[in-house]
Amino acid sequence: MKAIQIHQFGGLGELKYEDAELPKINPDDVLIKVFATSINPVDWKVREGEMKQIKFTFPLILGWDVSGVITETGSGVKNFEVGQEVYSRPDLTRNGTYAEYVAVKAGIIAEKPHSISHLEAASIPLAGLTAWQGIFDHGKLEPGQKILIHGASGGVGTLAVQLAKWKGAYVIGTASENNIDFLKELGADEVIDYKHQQFEKELKDIDVVFDTIGGETQKKSVEVLKTGGILVTTVGVQDEEIFKAKNIQACHYMAQSYPEQLKQMADLIDSGKLKPVIDQVFSLEEIAKAQKVSEEGHTRGKIAIKVI
User: Fold this and answer.
1) Apex CA 90: angle with CA 234 and CA 120, to 5°?
2) Each residue's pLDDT tens digit, 121-144
3) Are 183 and 148 in contact, with CB atoms under 8 Å apart?
4) What does CATH list as the number for 2-124+276-306?
């Protein structure tokens, strides 16, 4: 099969489009013919060597979103069959989805949403699970609460805005001026232009802050959270003491691959309550260009990769 592999950590030049061995499946795996994948920051962070706490072996295939069709099932797989359309966020410790085929544990896949394309479906798993677990599992968001979403126009943020609105929360996002109308169309009640407005001076009594930015943005968030509020971050807690002083729970997490949450999101998509947002589409051979765009950090929604 064709795949994008790296043979060592490094820059964009390490991404090689080449022949690779077809994955061998374990008894609890399925083999998926990859129709589409998408770019996530973890992809280029692994490529650059920032995730060395995870044991990787070379050559390594990056990419941890997939939408495709099952072509083979392991001997222990009972709940999926050949020909089924599925989507998933595969295990980070195995070869990924920048390839024509990927082996994935059957326990972390779900049936693909019926109403959207493979390209759209591939943009959901990692970003969607990150948003879902951040605002619901860790943020404990309830109807009627106020949530502030930093980086609301990004891949995770666009899904977080929609999920929080579906939950019945009052949703505030930070983004650049050209994304204000776009985010309101997605369901945001307010959008703060971070380049020209100081959110910490305009907001107060926020129940949950969902932070995908970090740095000073995270530190200033303590000023808008109510006592007993929750800050959830995907990028690490910079200064725990400033949150403890106001009895604010600050939580950092990495999303896990839970198929029941993928199923819930598929149901929301098929009922019109959640929609993927794709900024650009690249081919498998153009992965280096796609990762470069992702690293620049100005995409609206996700960057999708068409494999078939």
Assistant:
1) 80
2) 999 999 999 999 999 999 999 999
3) no
4) 3.90.180.10
